[in-house]
Structures are given as C-alpha cells and as structure tokens.
Amino acid sequence: MSPLQIKKGSNKHSAYNLRPTFSDVQETHTLAVLVDNEAGVLARVIGLFSGRGYNIDSLTVAEVDHAGHLSRITIVTTGTPQVIEQIKAQLGRIIPVHEVHDLTVEGSSVERELALIKVASKGEQRVEALRLADIFRAHVVDSTLESFVFQITGTPEKVDAFADLMRPLGLVEVARTGVAALSRGA
Amino acid sequence: MTRQMTGAKMVVQALRDQGVDTIFGYPGGAVLPIYDEVFQQNAIRHILVRHEQGAVHAAEGYARSTGKPGVVLVTSGPGATNAVTGLTDALMDSIPIVVLTGQVPTFMIGTDAFQEADTVGITRPCTKHNWLVKDTEKLSGVIHEAFHVATKGRPGPVLVDIPKDVQFATGAYTPPAKTKVSRYQPQLKGDMETIIELVEAIENAEKPLFYTGGGVINSGPAASQLLRELVEATGFPITSTLMGLGAYPASGDKWLGMLGMHGLYEANLSMHGCDLMINVGARFDDRITGRLDAFSPQSRKAHIDIDPSSINKVIRVDMPIVGDIAHVLEDVLKVWKARGRKVNRDGIAKWWKQIEDWRKVDCLKYKPSPKTIKPQHALTRLEALTKKYDRYICTEVGQHQMWAAQYLGFEDPNRWMTSGGLGTMGYGFPASIGVQMGHPDALVINVAGEASWLMNMQEMGTAVQYNLPVKQFILNNERLGMVRQWQELLHGERYSHSWSAALPDFVKLAEAFGAKGILCKDPADLDEAIMEMIEHPGPVIFDCLVEKHENCFPMIPSGEPHNKMLLSDAKTKDAIGTKGAVMV
Questions:
Q1: Residues 154-193, chain B: which have Cβ within 8 Å of A?
Q2: CA distance A52 to chain B (A)
Q3: What are the residue numbers of the active site of B?
Q4: Which of B122, B170, B186, B267 could be disulfide-bonded to B256 (CB atoms 3.0-4.6 Å)?
Q5: Which residues does chain B have within 8 Å of residue A2's beta carbon, measured at their own beta carbons?
Q6: Cβ proximity of B218 and B153 under 8 Å
Q7: Best mutation target, B126, B184, B312, B579, to test chain A (most A CBs within 10 A)
Q8: Could you read off the pLDDT tens digit of each residue along chain B, which spans 584 residues?
Q9: What residues of chain B lie within 8 A of the CB of A51, using their CB?
C-alpha cells in the first residue's frame, strides 16, 4: 500500500470511476414529448440523447397541432430508472419543450407502429405469405406477379413477429414508422 | 408603440431597453451593420477585445460580479466558433450571457459562403437556448426572449444568430413590455410538504451541515442574506463549493471553508460524518463527491435547486425541493420560526466539538521558506494586504486557483470569479477585464498561473486600451502545476510536457503592451511589491516566481471518499508505482 492508500494495480484512483449506487435494472419507457414545431427542435432532442449517452430505441415526430405549431415526439428509450428520470428532467429543460409524459408509468397506453413489408416469392411460398398476412390482418398495398407489399399496423412486437415469419418466405425490405403512443382513457 | 427600423438598429434599441450599458465584442463582415449602429450612439459602451473567447469570458466576469447578464457581439464563422469555449464555460457555471453573432445573408446560408458556419448547430449543446432569426419582424421579440431565458430559472448562455440581410432590412420594433409573455416560467416556490419535512429534519439533526453552491449566488443577494440568517439562527456549520464562496462570509464562525477535492479537512470530514446534509444550490459535482458509493454514508440529504435535472442526477436525495433558493430559504425560515425555532442543541454542541478537533489538524499549514516564495505564502500576503480594499478576485485554472480558494477569504457574494465546471485555462484575465468594467473603482485581481495566463494574454491590449487597472497576480512556477502534481502522484514522476522552456519575460511583456510589470522572487520583497501593484493606477503584470515543485494539499485522491484525504505532510514521492500510474 502506498501513502495514497491505493493498492498497486488498482483502478480505484480513476477520476471517472465514480458510478453511483442506483439500481442498474434496465427498463424500457415510452415518452411523449410535446414541442414547438420550430427549426432545430428535433436536433435539440436527439442531441440531448447522443450528448448524454442515452439510448433511442425508436423515435417518431410529426406536427399534431397545425394551428398551435406543436409537434409530438414519441421516443422509446431504455435505461436504469435513474437514467429515465434524468432523461425526462433533461427533456423538460429544453426551452421549446412544452410537456414530457412518461406513458409507461402514467397509467396504461396504446402503442402502435405501421410497417411496409416487401416479400418476393412464387408458388406455395407466395400463398403462405398471403395466408399469414390475413392472420395478422396485414393489407396488400402493392402487388406484382412476383411480389407483395404488405401494410401492417400493431405493436412493435406484432410487427417483429410478422417480419420474422416473412423472412423464409422471401422478405426483401422492411420500412417501419416507429412507435406512436397515446395514454388510454379520457 | 411599435416603430419601424432596421434590424441593426433594433439590436441596439433592444439592448438599451434591456438595460445593457456594456457589451464586449469584435467586429467582422457579418456584423458591420450592427457595428455601424453601435458607432452612432453613446448609451452602450463597447469594449473591443482581442479574441472572441476573451469577449465571452469578459462578459462572464461582468455578469458574475454585477448580477446582470453579460452581452457579447461577434461576427459569423470564426467569430462564433471562437466564442464556443466561453459559451460552454458559462453553461457549466450557469452564468447569464447573451451572445449576438452575425451570420451570412439568409439567401447564402448553406452555400459554404465566406465566414459561414452553422452557428446555431455548433452552439446548440453549449447554450441554454439559441435562435437563428430569419425575419427582421421577429428580431426584437427574440432578443427580449433571449434575455428572459438567459436570466430566469437556472441562468445560462444564449445565442442569437442574425444574418446580415436581416440586419439591413426594416421591420417593426417591439419594446420588452409589448413582447408576448414568455412560456418559459420556471417554478420559484418549493413544495411546502417537503419544506416541512426539511424543517423537521433541521429540528432533530445531531450532525447537520449546510453544503452550498453557486446557486445561492445566482439566486441573488436575498438568497445569501437568508442563508446567513438561517445559518446563524440554527448554529449549523456550513461549507461551500468553489462556485459558492462568498455566499456565507469566510469570517463567520460557522464557516468550515471550501469542500471537495482540494477542500478543507474539517469541511470534507463534516460532509462524510454528517447526519443531515442540506444542499443549497450545489450539484454534487464529481470534484465534490469523490467516490459515490462512499459519499456521506450516514446522512439524510435535502437538495434545493431550481433545475429539476440536478436532483437525483448522481446522488439520491431524501428531500428534493425544486425552486429558487431565496424563495425556498424564506419558506424554510418561516416554517422553522413558526414551529418554535427548535434545534437539537446537545447534539449540535457535540458535533461542533468534533469539528473543532478536525480544525485543529490545521490542514492548510505549509512549510514556509526564507529563500523562495511559497505560493501559499504569496496568497496569504495578498489576502492580508488587499482585504481592506473593495476587492474582486478572478482566477485561471489549476493549483493557483485551488490555493486562492483556500487562502483568500470572501465576505460577500459576487466577489469571486473562477471557472469551476469547465475548468477553462485562460478564463481569469478576460474575466477580470469584465469585472473591472462593472466596477471601475474596485481593486480587481486575477490570481493566475503563468501557463493559464498565456492562453489569453492578448487581452493585455484591451486592458491597456481602456486603461482598466486589472492586476495580474501570476504565481509563476514555470510548470503546468496541477498537471505536474498529477504526474508526480499518478504517473511515476514522468513530467510529460508539463513545463515550458520558453516563457516570456513578463515585465518586458507588460512594458511592450504599455503596462507595468513587477518581478518578485524574494519573500522579503513580497509585501512591498504587492503594495506597488495595488497602488499603480493602471494594469499590472505581477510575475511572482514561486517554488516550482509545490503540491496543492489537502487532496482527496480521485475515486476516494472524503475521509481518505491526504494532508500536506503526506509523502507523495513514489505514492503510486510505475504499474499503477498507467491507469488514469
């Protein structure tokens, strides 16, 4: 032991080895953020996540109130409870942010995603793809003799499941919107 | 009444309506219309700096010493990018700054035009908020909103980017009173239930401690006054971060000194041993907490902060109170008085006895030398000889900064300007220029290291041009002292690039700029030399040659808890073996 009370070879004296003692269970939360629809507001939100090292699993944004120039950003993020709290507090600090809602903790919510899925196949595979699409209530929005484009809406899990089933049946391309979410009830 | 005027005129009008009397800046192509308006009026004084970083630091010094927002005017491209360090510094230390930048005309944005930079993009993460104004009609409203955002809530830097065609075009000017009320209205009053919980904790605590920070000073003079009242009435000990020095007077008997990595022994051990920690406007910075899992293990913690994101960021607290310090302290005092002004007198008496024992360690003692000037001695003498003046202190960053915090005493808020969060070498000199602008008759001293000072030495031209009698008190050890100290402690004494083989002759340097230079290397001459510095009516560079290998103590080694601090007599040579030193 040296006079610094640090064992040789120890990394205890790192200035950055200062992890707090919060729970390290990872949780996934869906946040709805109401913002002024002005230039750069999305960059502020995304910059916050990248700058502070938070995760973005999914992000959607569109103007929801044309008269009030308000956009709604729906962000699905993963982190420890303390990180999620920080994300909400940090979002709240952004000047054009009006409201931050954590739909995961504020009662139950509906989450939906839309995906377009292109499948190219022939014969039995093509029939099977159509049959599964029917089960998943996916619609055919484009069709050629060799391909379909399916439109499917639902939870991200349902979209995942459908895309997985299409993989052996000639899946070519997937386009997803990301999650839109609203709290249930009035 | 709205009046029609050019965008450039609007800028000057808006600044006047916001009560601005001083701006710091540097002209360039994209702000020429505004400079033309600055030229044609006398209400606002413009200080021409020598580098845009200096302008922002000067504005910070002005803001921190006066409590008013600092204003900067610079050009597009390099003018804006040079301001980035100052903006980041102001963001980290919550200093209200309004930076106005010129921009290429709107129709040239995005074409890689001459001196074009994506200023709002570059400064987005280092401002509290920023705006690109593409329409002259909106310009005055945005500038008023910029002042509102910079100064309300947790203060911070804002930036308004103004394309040159917007400066030339004509639009309607809206005065502040007619501007629509900002949606940004931070919460000032704290939650009453939690305040009552805090008062109960105050009544029962056996080992309480106030841990205060820059938020007290940012909240305004009333917050410092209320803090003093609360401390005196309860008899609780108080410590402060680097940023909060002066909120409670250093001569007060409840004062334990600064805490943290180079804080005082009694302050840090009190933090470690307390059973109630009342954090007033501080943010549990890593220089304060040390190792988090061993940080003040037995205490219940209250945290008063206007910024909700400061709460539970790194330390989980039991009593979070979001609100303005002055508002919350007023409520705490009111409730505590109404409930009969109770404290646990026996417990607190015992606690003070314990603290007195820690004080006896006398952690700031150092080995004096008759031959060389010890930096601690230089600051002790500076303190003794300048105490009676109307004094403001700035610092650069490094060992000298920590020694200044340890050996100088601050009786009032807004008297101590130092770069805390960002640790910006080169901050102090331009900051001292800003302070002197705000307080023309005061004694403004920048305690510096020679390496930091050289980072913005060009501002000597500014000091001389405006005859600002700022005193540059350079503790010259010909080393990057703090880097050298870490290399000694953690890197096997391999002093990689932490010394300069080509330092200027500071006396000649001062003379080259038309200022006064003083060289002092003998402890016997020190007092006389300091008096000569104080009495000289113009700017002075004081080159104080100090002991080259002095280390700054006490010190909590990084990643250690408060009770593992090193005192000055610790033997630091070979403290860590070669193998251990490869890790940072």
A1: 183-184
A2: 10
A3: 52, 114-115, 164, 482
A4: B267
A5: 574-577, 580
A6: no
A7: B312
A8: 579 999 999 999 999 999 999 999 999 999 999 999 999 999 999 999 999 999 999 999 999 999 999 999 999 999 999 999 999 999 999 999 999 999 999 999 999 999 999 999 999 999 999 999 999 999 999 999 999 999 999 999 999 999 999 999 999 999 999 989 999 999 999 999 999 999 999 999 999 999 999 999 999 999 999 999 999 999 999 999 999 999 999 999 999 999 999 999 999 999 999 999 999 999 999 999 988 889 999 999 999 999 999 999 999 999 999 999 999 999 999 999 999 999 999 999 999 999 999 999 999 999 999 999 999 999 999 999 999 999 999 999 999 999 999 999 999 999 999 999 999 999 999 999 999 999 999 999 999 999 999 999 999 999 999 999 999 999 999 999 999 999 988 888 999 999 988 999 999 999 999 999 999 999 999 999 999 999 999 999 999 999 999 999 999 887 788 888 888 756 554 444 443 343 33
A9: 125
CA angle B425, B288, B252 (to 5 degrees): 95
For chain B, positions 543-562, list CB contacts with chain A under 8 A: 557-560
- Distance (Å) from the alpha carbon of A67 to chain B's nearest alpha carbon: 17
Using a CB–CB cutoff of 8 Å, tell me whether A22 touches chain B. Answer: yes
Stretch 84-103 of chain A: residues touching chain B, C-beta under 8 Å: 85-86, 89-90, 92-96, 98
Residues in CB range of A32: below 8 A, 6 or more apart? A72, A73, A74, A99, A100, A101, A103, A181, A182
Nearest CA in chain B to A12: B559
Report CB contact under 8 Å: A39, B125: no
**Phi, then psi, of B91 in degrees rounded to 5:** -65, -45
- Contact flag B559-A14 (C-beta cutoff 8 Å): yes
CB contact under 8 A, B559 and A86: no
Strand-by-strand arrangement of the B238-240 sheet: B255-258, B238-240, B208-212, B276-280, B300-305, B319-322
Cα-based distances in Å from B317 to A20, B166, B310, B313: 12, 48, 11, 9
Contact A61, A18 (CB under 8 A): no
Q: Which residues of A touch B584 (CB under 8 A)?
A: 14-16
Nearest-by-CA chain A residue for B583: A11
For residues B336, B342, B346, B349, the Cα torsion angle rounded to the nearest 10 degrees is: 40
Task: Give the H/E segment covering residue A118.
Answer: strand A109-120
Give, as one character, the DSSP assignment of residue B555.
B
**Residue B128 forms contact with A (CB below 8 Å):** yes
**CA–CA min distance A20, chain B (Å):** 5
Which tokens is B495 given? 């002093």
Q: Find, among B314, B304, B344, the residue nearest to B207 by Cα.
A: B344
Whole-angstrom distance, CA of residue B564 vs CA of residue B261: 11
**Residue B63 at interface with chain A, using a CB cutoff of 8 Å:** no
Helices within B103-205 (DSSP H only): 119-123, 136-151, 164-168, 192-204
Q: What is the dihedral of CA B420, B423, B426, B429, to 10 degrees?
A: 10
pTM: 0.93
Cβ distance A3 to B315 less than 8 Å, yes or no, reads no
How many angstroms separate the CA atoms of B299 and A56, rounded?
36
Q: Decide if B332 contacts B199 (C-beta within 8 A).
A: yes
Tell me how far CA of residue A7 lies from CA of A18, B159, B287, B577, in angstroms.
17, 48, 22, 9
Say yes or no: A40 contacts chain B, CB-CB below 8 A: yes
Closest Cα in chain A, distance from residue B292 (Å): 5
The arrangement of strands across the sheet holding A70-79 comes to A58-65, A70-79, A27-36, A97-102
Helix (H) or strand (E) holding A36: strand A27-36
Token pair listed for B111: 């074409």
* Sign of the Cα pseudo-torsion (B436, B442, B443, B449, in order): negative
